[in-house]
């Protein structure tokens, strides 16, 4: 099962004990599923699940020029962050293509960036290549364990394990506190659309925290959740996946991420190109579609209109919550209107679909 080339998270043995199907992902052995993707997906939507997401990357940014540096390399306005607040943003190349989407935490006297697992080395190099002034960039990825408790019952579980008043913690805020006797950083964030928390801590506390979370969640019927359900949960919310829906060939405006681009904050890498795209209008847009017929759309399938190709699917699933085929993809702007009828070409056969307003799943519980 193991390979010298692949890393193991500190929860690897727990995954094996829970009969996980392990796959190679971003240089790690990761669980793709335990009991089954659909069951795990519905568990998170209805109750609560525990995710090992240690494969994600964490960078610390220290120094008196840290804010100016982050303003230069990211699209959102980092100066608006209050202490312990979290911000979603992206980094762009000079041509407006996306380096990565990420979270920025403003902590005591430094910032923490949480980046996608597949982009850790690339992102760290990109940040170093654009470093200036008094800034110290530290890659903490290989020493930071990360668990996500996600679902409507997430707060009930964490309340058992900490004396921090979670009622006062808003969505996209963080805090340092003791959880199961461990001093750590946690935030009210997630990638599922449900209420939940993400916990950052040293590897040495992994056994304690995994066991404590599972024990505290017993009465809520908590289960470990794999990457398969993580993907279907995020797509139902139209959360972007780097490498599928966004990458170096896409810009934030066409990807529907204009809300995390603050063009009036001052100069940043890619600003001029993004400004032009916004002014002229994008030639294509990332849209959400729902199949009218029963089918399973997949990445790479053609999107058609009257038999002519107008775009491609970037992410697609059969939604466990909606029990319909859903997906996102880029189409020519003229066909991106809500209510537009298009066809998804599945195994050579056109399946009728309608472009809808996101998110697909609207009964989410995040605060």
Short note summarizing the structure:
With about 375 residues, the chain is α+β, with helices and mostly antiparallel strands.
Structure notes:
- Among the domains are: about 5-55 and about 140-235, 2-Layer Sandwich (Gyrase A, domain 2); about 285-355, Elongation Factor Tu (Ef-tu), domain 3, CATH 2.40.30.110.
- Helix 2 (about 35-45) crosses helix 7 (about 225-235).
- With about 375 residues, it is of the alpha+beta class.
- The protein has 8 helices and 20 strands.
- The protein is globular and about 60 Å long.
- The model has no long low-confidence stretch (mean pLDDT about 95).
- The strands form 4 sheets. Strands 11-12-13-10-4-14 form a 6-stranded mixed β-sheet, with helices on both faces. The protein has a 6-stranded antiparallel β-barrel with strand order 15-18-17-16-19-20.
- The protein starts with 6 loop residues before the first strand and ends in an 11-residue tail after the last strand.
- The chain has helices at about 10-15, 35-45, 65-75, 120-130, 155-160, 205-215, 225-235, 270-280, and strands at about 5-10, 20-25, 30-35, 50, 55-60, 85-90, 100-105, 110-115, 135-140, 145-150, 175-180, 180-185, 195-200, 225, 285-290, 300-305, 310-320, 325-330, 340-345, 350-355.
- Helices cover about 20% and strands about 35% of the residues.
């Amino acid at each position: 099962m193991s390979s010298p080339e692949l890393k193991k998270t500190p929860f690897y043995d727990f995954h094996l004990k829970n009969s996980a199907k392990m796959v190679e992902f971003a240089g790690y052995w990761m669980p793709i599923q335990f009991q089954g993707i659909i069951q795990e997906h519905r568990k998170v939507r209805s109750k609560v699940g525990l995710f090992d997401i240690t494969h994600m990357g964490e960078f610390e940014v220290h120094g008196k020029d840290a804010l100016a540096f982050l303003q230069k390399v990211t699209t959102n306005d980092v100066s608006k962050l209050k202490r312990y607040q979290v911000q979603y943003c992206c980094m762009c190349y000079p041509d407006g293509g996306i380096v990565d989407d990420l979270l920025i935490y403003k902590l005591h006297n430094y910032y923490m960036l949480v980046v996608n697992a597949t982009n850790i080395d690339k992102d760290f190099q990109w940040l170093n290549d654009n470093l200036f002034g008094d800034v110290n960039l530290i890659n903490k990825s290989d020493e930071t364990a990360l668990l996500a408790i996600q679902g409507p019952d997430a707060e009930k579980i964490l309340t058992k394990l900490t004396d921090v008043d979670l009622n006062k913690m808003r969505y996209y805020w963080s805090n340092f506190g003791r959880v199961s006797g461990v001093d750590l950083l946690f935030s009210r964030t997630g990638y599922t659309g449900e209420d939940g928390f993400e916990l950052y801590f040293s590897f040495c506390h992994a056994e304690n925290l995994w066991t404590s979370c599972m024990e505290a969640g017993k009465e809520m019927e908590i289960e470990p959740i794999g990457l398969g359900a993580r993907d279907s949960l995020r797509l139902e919310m139209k959360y972007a996946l780097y490498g599928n829906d966004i990458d170096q060939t896409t810009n934030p405006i066409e990807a529907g991420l204009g809300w995390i681009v603050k063009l009036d904050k001052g100069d940043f890498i890619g600003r001029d190109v993004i400004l032009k795209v916004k002014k002229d209008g994008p030639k294509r847009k990332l849209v959400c579609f729902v199949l009218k017929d029963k089918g399973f759309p997949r990445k790479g399938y053609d999107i058609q209109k009257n038999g002519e190709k107008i775009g491609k699917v970037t992410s697609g699933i059969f939604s466990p919550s909606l029990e319909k085929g859903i997906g996102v993809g880029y189409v020519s702007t003229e066909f991106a209107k809500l209510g537009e009828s298009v066809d998804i070409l599945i195994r050579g056969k056109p399946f009728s679909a309608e472009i809808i307003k996101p998110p697909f799943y609207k009964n989410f519980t995040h605060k």
